[in-house]
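A quick word before the example. In earlier lectures we treated sequence and structure as two separate objects. From today on, think of them as two lines of the same record. Here is Rhomboid protease gluP written that way.
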Amino acid sequence: MLESVCYRHPDQTTGIVCQRCHRPICPRCMVAGSVGFQCPDCVAAGRRQTRQGQLPYGGARSTRPALTSQVLVGINAVIWLAILLTGGEESPLFRMLAIQAQGFCATERYILAVDSPAQCAAIGATWTEGVASGAWWQVLTNAFTHLDVIHIAFNMVALYVLGPQLESVLGRARFLALYLASALTGSAAVVWFSAPYTTTMGASGAIFGMMGAVLLIAWKHHGDVRTILVWLGVNVAITFVGSSFISWQGHLGGLVGGLAVTAALIWLPREQRRLWQWPLVGLVAVLAVAAIVARALTIAG
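And the structure line, produced from the sequence above:
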C-alpha cells in the first residue's frame, strides 16, 4: 500500500484515504463512516447538508413525506363521493371531469350525429364535453375521477404506499411534478390512441408513472429491481388482458411519462441539476400538452 502524508498533519504518514474526498488522513483524523473512514471536513459538510435537509437530487427534505399523498388521496375520495351522490355514471360532474377526445351527444343507448350542446338538448339527449370540443381541463381532472370502488381503492392504496417513498427521495415539489406530468402523458396517450368517444378516468396513469419512478431509482442505486419488475409486469399484463375495460393507453402513457421525468431528475450530473432539472420536467409536460392539442385540432378539423 502506498503511503502519503495526512492533509491535516503533514508530519503523519498514512495509507488511509477519505472515502468521500479521497484525501489521505491519519488515525487522528479518521472518522468511521458506514463504509470506511471520512475526514473531518467531509463529516462536517455532511452534517451541514443533513441539517439543511437537502435531498440527493435537489429540493428540501419533507418533514411529513406522506402529506402530499394523503392530500391527493383525499381529493380523489371527495370527487368520487361527489360523483356517487350526484348520479354515478349519469352524474354531470362525472361527464365534466372524465376525459374523452371528442364531445358527443347520446341517449341511454346510442351516440347521435349531433355536433353542438344546443342541438343535443333540443332533441332531449345528453351532451358530454370532450377535449376537442373545448374541455381542456379533462386532461388533468380525469386523473382524479373514479366510479368503481375497486378502481379507486386499488389506485389509492398504490398511491399511499409508493407516494411517501418517492417524496422521501425526491422532495415534495418533484414528487408532485412527477405525479401530474405522468397524468398528462397518460391523457396524451388516451386522446391519441383511444376511440374519440371513449370515456376514460382514473389515477392509474399517474400510478404507473410512480411505478416507473420507483424502478429507475432502485436501478440507479443498484437495488434489487426484480420484485419491482415483476410487480410492474403483472400490472402491465393485467392492463392488456383487461383492455376491453382498462385503458392501456392511459397506463402506458403514464409509465412513459414517469420514466422520462424521473430520468431527468436523477441522471443529470450533480452540477447540472439546478440548471436543467425543471426545464427537462417542463419539457415532458409541454410535449404532452402539444400532443393533446395536435390531436384535438385533428379531430376538430
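Notice the following. The CA atoms of residues 89 and 147 lie 7 Å apart. We will return to this example when we discuss secondary structure assignment.
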